[in-house]
Amino acid sequence: MKIITNRLKDWVLFLVMPVVLFYLSQNMLTNVIGRVNWQLQIANIVLMMLFAVFVSSLAGKSSLGLRILTVLVWLISTVDAYIYEFRGSYIMPWDIFSVGTALNVADNFSYVPTTRMVIVSILFIGLFWAEGYCKVDFSKLFKRAALRFIISALALASVFCYTWLIHRNTVIEKLGIYTIQFDADGLIKHNGLGAGFIYELKFLSVEKPAGYSSSKQKEILEKIDADTTSAGSTPDIIVIMDEAFSDPAVDGKIETNEDYMPFIHSLMNGAENTQSGYMNMSVIGGNTPNSEFEFLTGHSMAFLPKGSIAFQQFIRHEIDSMPSYLKSLGYSTLAMHPYDSSGWNRTKVYPLLKFDEMYFLDDYYENLNLPEVRKYVSDDAFFGQIEKEVAARAEKAEKGPVFSFNVTMQNHSSYGKEFDNLPWTISVNGIEEMNKQAIRITNYVNLIKLTDTAFEKLIDHYKNSDRPTVVVFFGDHQPDPNVYDIMWSQNGKSADTLDKEDTFNTYRVPFIIWANYDIEEKSGLEISDNYLGNMTLKAAGIPLTKYRTFTDEFSKKYPVISAIRTMDADGNSYATDDVASELKEYAAMQYYEMFDDKDDYE
After folding, report:
1. Has residue 109 been placed in a domain?
2. Which single residue of 45, 210, 287, 504 has CA 20 to 30 Å from 333?
3. In the chain, what percentage of residues exceed pLDDT 90?
């Protein structure tokens, strides 16, 4: 009787431990009650139990298997909690492609644990201790090792079946899975750590659009009249994609002791030879290369798996792009980024986009000892280097035109501590205590002011240049959502309670196209990143390619198409997923250009 009681106790413990493990892991991130519905709680618990069987069968003893699983889950949930602190989102499947990039900037963040993290970690330790009392012995239950491997294999197969089921629309509906893709915060908080991650696996591959035909897309392109063999003018084109640059006022009313971006505001208010407005991005707080991808190719992340990284997942061969097209017109093409070359697969992708040269921190800028703000090369120093490199390429090319694409680093997160080399000349009104939230927004607006000053200096340089030059400037995304905590609070809002329109605003950044010669002035424009390349070429007097002509025509119906927001010509806004059927022509043409078309300019 005692043996039966002990075995029953062991099995009860074995079944209870994954339940506790789920609740601990979820509470490392947020409160479960009121967030994750009971169906999804059960779904997450079932998944945890399958992993418990898988690990324990391999380990032979349940105590060892459960402890291994507990350490892994603690580690994952702790990393998730830090990632939320850093960028306001959680680990997604595609983040495995970004580990190298994450490690590049890891030493720029504070790793002081929150009170929640400390309390839950102590509870994890208690669970680890209690698991020693679970004595289910898989090695005795299944005396042959082969049987234990079969049980493990069955448990793993069940996980794959579970994944298949959770991707079915009927199951998604019955479980009440949260599906708003632009809300990474909500995806984990409402779906649970395990089920949320597995649900997102469905977005790792690109499916052909319904009814897609490569011959049909080719036929459509062939009918488009576009002369891409020569250009009426070939000015130098300098593009600056400025890290995390945005205007906080887009998100809510903010009062400061003085304007934090007076020069850029002046350009956006109808300045001479300037086109400006706000651009809707597909990312927030990170995933910079997706902004590069949209600008350089004219493609939209709206038609790629949600949260994917195009540079790492989908560019495996040469594809048509702005540098490849300009190169065919006689431009020398140069890409520069004053940070590590190991980030985001750029060293492999840039040559496929037909950049002649590329320079990074580790093979160029370190030798120059360029001044830094915090731990990054300052925008002022980098902009000065851009001037020198463009001039040098112009001389090398015998006065030929230059296309220079530049990704800055000065304004990169994190923002939560004070720095001796970042003076605070801008202060935010209404701050009573200089706590971590106050430091974040104060650092941020002062970084923006430094960029504004540096950009004015760059424009002054090209005003006095005798070479026709077009300068394009835009932010790659808004900063981590927690930077604006105080501002949102002052506006009676919070990051967790934003409505749809407020959320759309968190993806908008300023853009500028300026020339040192006469171009048509435009201001107050609302576009998306995939269209900015077309605007740049048209401002420079360069004809559009067939594909860009197609997308330019499409922009007249839908001037904004990002992964998050779509806006029609009447100014109506929609979540992009809700109007996918209206965008299918663009989706089909983009699929053709990315995966089926051959290079048009060789």
Report:
1. yes
2. 287
3. 41
